[in-house]
Design goal:
Layout: H1 2-9, E1 14-17, H2 39-46, H3 60-66, E2 69-80, E3 90-104, E4 114-122, H4 128-134, E5 140-148, E6 151-162, E7 170-171, H5 183-190, E8 196-197, E9 208-213, E10 216-220, E11 231-236, E12 246-247, E13 250-254, E14 273-281, E15 284-288, E16 294-299, E17 304-306
Parallel strand pairs: 8-11
Antiparallel strand pairs: 1-4, 2-3, 2-5, 3-4, 5-6, 6-7, 9-10, 10-17, 11-14, 12-13, 13-16, 14-15, 15-16
């Protein structure tokens, strides 16, 4: 009941979209400041000139229990979005966050997605240009979310941000009755222990293959069928993720990060590695490498064609 009350009174709308959509146009007006501090931004998002009536949470754990998902991401943009209440002196700004990590998993959210959420404010006390000027672009953020009428809605106490994981965080909209030392400690408190299941044995020791021309092979998966949920230990083959990902009786396509190819940050795309394979949905998963990098995976249908790797 309390979670519903908080969601109802938040007056914010959060939507999720796949990261492959076009990047939002950067807001016009003053150039946002680099993330060197959050005090001005915190004052703006907390003191909006609007008073909320809601049930406060008792602790970080309590807020997390109310939430259907908790994510960490990067604050990337803000723009003015006048709404239906403009004639009454209420308007809004839309914040954009890129999801870097799903702390409490939900099948509807994935690493790499882009979230937008709206914050309303009284135009008699605030101006949209102030939000653009104070935006700590590139700041880390943690969002406590509820799914409300098929939309993602953040709690009034559920918008946290800091320039770095070890920095004291700011909190938007309402100040809870509890405090945290840093954004990192907030994440650690919310994180649920993950049971890592053993890596399933392959169904056969040999590749089921046939010639595909030009020295290539058409192969079938040889991995065992699993339940399609949870986290498993996973060994990347000696030629890396780009060569082959065979898991749950299917092949998977690894998506390159935006900065792939700039230096040698992701050696597991072409070298062996041992990490974890976590299902997000039946056809989506995350590979977490030994380096801590998280790579999105997409299930493929049927066989694939490979070049033998020596």
């Amino acid at each position: 009941m309390y979670r519903v009350m908080a969601a109802l009174t938040a007056l914010m709308l959060l939507t999720a979209c796949d990261a492959t959509v076009p990047t939002a146009v950067a807001p016009s007006g003053p150039v946002p400041k680099a993330c060197s501090g959050i005090d001005d931004f915190e004052e703006l998002v907390r003191n909006t000139g609007i008073v909320y009536n809601y049930q406060p949470s008792r602790s970080v754990e309590h807020l997390a229990e109310w939430s259907d998902a908790v994510v960490a991401g990067t604050l990337v943009a803000v723009k003015e979005t006048p709404g239906d209440l403009a004639s009454r002196g209420i308007t809004s700004v839309t914040f954009t966050v890129d999801v870097d990590r799903v702390i409490r998993a939900n099948p509807g959210l994935e690493v790499g997605e882009r979230l937008t959420f709206i914050t309303e404010f009284n135009v008699g006390t605030r101006d949209a240009a102030e939000y653009k000027q104070a935006l700590p672009e590139g700041a880390m953020t943690v969002l406590f979310l509820s799914e409300w009428h098929e939309e993602w809605t953040p709690h009034l106490e559920g918008f946290w941000f800091a320039c770095g994981e070890n920095d004291p965080p700011g909190n938007g909209l309402t100040e809870p009755n509890w405090t945290v030392k840093s954004l990192g400690s907030l994440i650690e408190t919310v994180e649920e222990p993950v049971e890592i299941k053993p890596e399933p044995s392959p169904t056969t020791a040999d590749l089921d293959s046939e010639p595909a021309g030009e020295g290539r092979l058409k192969i079938r998966p040889r991995s065992a069928d699993v339940a399609g949920v949870g986290t498993y230990r996973f060994t990347v083959p000696h030629c890396g993720l780009d060569w082959m990902v065979d898991f749950d009786a299917s092949f998977w396509k690894a998506e390159h990060p935006d900065d792939y190819g700039k230096g040698n940050r992701y050696p597991f795309f072409y070298n062996p590695d041992v990490g974890t394979f976590t299902f997000v949905s039946w056809d989506r998963a995350i590979y977490e490498a030994s380096t801590g990098d998280q790579i999105r995976l997409r299930r493929l249908d049927g066989r694939i064609v490979i070049t033998p790797c020596m």
